[in-house]
Structure formats: C-alpha cells, structure tokens
Write a structure and sequence with these properties.
With 490 residues, the protein is an alpha+beta fold. The protein folds into two domains: 32-352, Beta-lactamase; 363-469, no CATH class. It has helices spanning 32-46, 88-101, 130-134, 147-151, 156-161, 180-194, 198-210, 255-265, 275-282, 341-352, 363-387, 389-396, 401-410, 413-419, 421-428, 436-439, 444-467, 473-476; strands at residues 50-57, 60-68, 82-83, 216-217, 227-231, 234-238, 251-253, 295-299, 302-310, 315-321, 326-332, 334-335. The protein has a six-stranded antiparallel sheet, sandwiched between helices. A three-stranded antiparallel sheet has the order 3-7-4. α1 packs antiparallel against α10, α11 runs parallel beside α17 (444-467) and α12 (389-396) crosses α17. GO terms for molecular function: hydrolase activity. Keywords: Hydrolase, Membrane, Signal, Transmembrane, Transmembrane helix.
Amino acid sequence: MRRILLTVLAFSLFLASPDTALGAAPAVEPTPAAIDRYLREARDSTGLPGLSAVVTRGDRIVHATGTGHDASGRPVTADTPMRVASVSKSFTAAAVMTMVDEGRVALDRPVAAYLPEFRMADPRAGRITVRQLLNQTSGLSDRTVDIAATQRATSLAGYLRALRAGTLAAEPGARYEYCNVNYDVAARLVEAVDGRDFAGAMSARVFGRLGMKASAVGDRVVRPADGFISLYGAWVSRAELPGFRGGAGGIVTTAGDMGRWLIGQTGHGPRMVTPKSLAAMHEHAPGTGYAMGWGEQVVAGHRLLVHSGNLFTYTAVQAIDPATGSGFAVLTNSASLYDDTYDILLGLVALADGRRPAAPGGTRQLTELALGLIALTAFGLGVLGVRRSGRWARRRAGRAWWRTAFRLAGGLVPAAVLATCPQWVSLLMNGRAVTWAQLTYFPAPLAITLAVAATAGLATAAARLARLRPVSIADTRPAVPEVSGRAGRT
C-alpha cells in the first residue's frame, strides 16, 4: 500500500525494501548509449510522458539525458526544467552547512537564537536546535500545526507567523517524524543569517558554487511546463497545485544541474562545504535512518544515500553511493498513485554495477485498471440497486425497523469512507496532512472510484428508503385461520 499511495498523497518518503544480495558487484561505468537504451525501454514500459536522468562518477557527469515530451509537446532533454519537490531538502541543508562552515551557525544551538520570530504556543519549541530541524527530530508535526495556514503564506516570515498557534508532537530530539515545516523553518534561518531572501541565498551559496546555472527556488527565474497526472492510465496535463514553496520543496532544476549537485555530494568537483560538513550531512540521526535531507537504502550490497520527492505533477529521486563515488537522479514531469522513478533509478544502479536492469513498469497501469473496474462495477450495482429498490422495499415490509435500518446503512459505508478520505490517507502516510485538493491530483483515480462507489450507495439507499411504506398494525398482526359461520368447523 505504501508503494501505491506515495507518494497520496506523498507522499511516505522512501520506496522499496533493502536488497538482500551478499555483496556489491564491482562498479563499472555504463556507456551513454547503454543509459539511453535503458531509459527508452523504461519510458516505453512505464508509459511516462517524459523523464530525464543523470549518472555521475567521481568528478564527471557520465551521461545526462531525457526522453519523451512536456505538456507543451517539446522534447524532454537534460536541460528541461523540472520540479524536484522534497529532493529540495538536501539543498536547503547544504545552504545551512555553508553557514556552519563560516562559523555563523552552530548545529546544536537553538533555532530561536538565530530566529527570535520563531515562537509557538508550546514552550518546548524554544529548545529545538538547528540539527534537529535538519534531522527531522524537532517534534514538529503536520498533526499539531495549521498546515493550511502555512500554505497560504506568501513569504517565509509569514510562514513562521502561521506556526505560532501550533504545538509539538514530541520533545525536541526524542523521535523522528518527517515534516516539511522543519525545512521551511530552516529556509527562514538561511534568510535571517545570510541577509538575502532564500532564493538569493541559495543561488549564491549552493547553485553558484557548483555551477548550477539552470536552477532556482520557485518559478520566477526558471519555470517548468505544466506536468501530468495519471487518470485511469491516461495522462492529463494539469497546473501544479498552488501552495507555499520554500526550503522543503521549492527547487526547480534540470538533470544536467543535478549531475553537478551529485558530484558535489560525493565530495568531488567544486567545493561547496568542508569535508566535515559533508560528512555531517550524510550521517543519520541515531535510530532514524535519516540524515540532513538524505535517507539510507541498501541495494545489491551498496549503501546508498537516497531521497525522493513528489509535488502532485512532478516526481524525482536522487541517490549517491559514497563507496564508489557514483550519483544517480531521475526526474519526471508526472505523478501517479504508483511512483516509477525509484524503479528506474534502481535500473541505473544496476547498470553501474554491470548488471542487466529489469524493465520497470506495469504496476501503475494495473493498479489504475483495477480501480477503473471497481468504479464501473460500483456504478452498475448502483443502477441495479435503484431499479430494484421497489422489490427490496416490499421484501422489508413487516420486518423489524432495526433490521431494515441495518440493511440501509450497509450501502452508506462507501460514503463514510469518502467523507473521511483525507483522514485515513493521512494515517497511511504517517500523519502527513492531506487536503481534498491534493486528492484530485495523483490520487485522483482512487478518489474518483470512492466517489462513484459512494454515489451509488447513497442513490440506492435513497431509492429504497423512498419506497418503504409505513408499517401498519395489520402488517405485523399474526395471521389466523378464517372461521366459517358453522360452529365447530374451520
């Protein structure tokens, strides 16, 4: 279910289980032709409208390329701007670490020491440290702050004001909980210490140092074309869902620029942070498996640092292999219930190991086909239920009212599931806030199927109720034999 509801809405952060291979194969360098061939096969098998990818080794980009098209019909290339959503978090952490290197920020000092405006209704917020923000162990949670209010903010300063009525879900440092608020607060910290807005600070501290000339925060400098959502297997172009874009998910970049970023994250190329700070970025908090914008996966014996992202119509994933100095990224201009980017990335890792990658794909199509069949079945049953409602009502005549009510209530279950859909999807996503608007994007096939089933159940229940006639005393009186006029005979 985690793989199907990604991202729903997400979506969870990491995909797939650790590989159980006994040891890593020797790293080899895949040829550009092999990478192009694999990506074409991957796009054909997944049906993705467009994707771009990059593979690096040491201080070199082995190959950056693209395939497919964007919403305007233009070919997707290594230079096509893409939103990378939560992959942005590792970039925000890097900006903070540049200030750590300068001695202007200390990881274990309270955030409030740099941001007096960071205040919440919970006094424990004053003890949150910079490190806890970046490791997602601050106690901040979608469940205890007004996420809707933060999404209406027009600046990072306004974002922090929207947090003031919120509380913490745990003691700072006590446990890990993935929450975008951590990285938007970190972005405001960057602004406050640097003196420039977040976009300007990122341009100077990260993009500029690495030569990432096609990257920016937000849409003002680099604007990607509209992306796609998958609707029962068909790709539909949609504008991105409006909302605040800051340190948690605001970066727009290209596969070519991602190559420069990955080279820097493996400790090669132009230096952005010191080796000590780079190591701190990649060291997960005890007991969490999460570092500063990086998670950890074991694939074919390799310990990879990985992070994925989903922003309703764009999906991305990045990975580095510290042992071999290899880097990988896959960006797509689409999003669906099943995320194919991680599977494609695993294929690139296999190529770099000298293994033959398996062609990904098929799961999205099968999942949405199943949902489509469920929707059609629910619609048919709803029509049948309305047409036979009179017969149903006649069979209920004379029966106890509570039995009839129980039978009617059964048809209302889909409506109850639909009405609480944001809540149970949030539960599946470990407490992440989910809105109705979000459910109309990559989870749209699921939401539509639930809506069809709910409508069918409500229509059937309403038709049955309308045809139930009031039960009279005669209906409930036991039948007795008819007595003739002659005494003693029946």
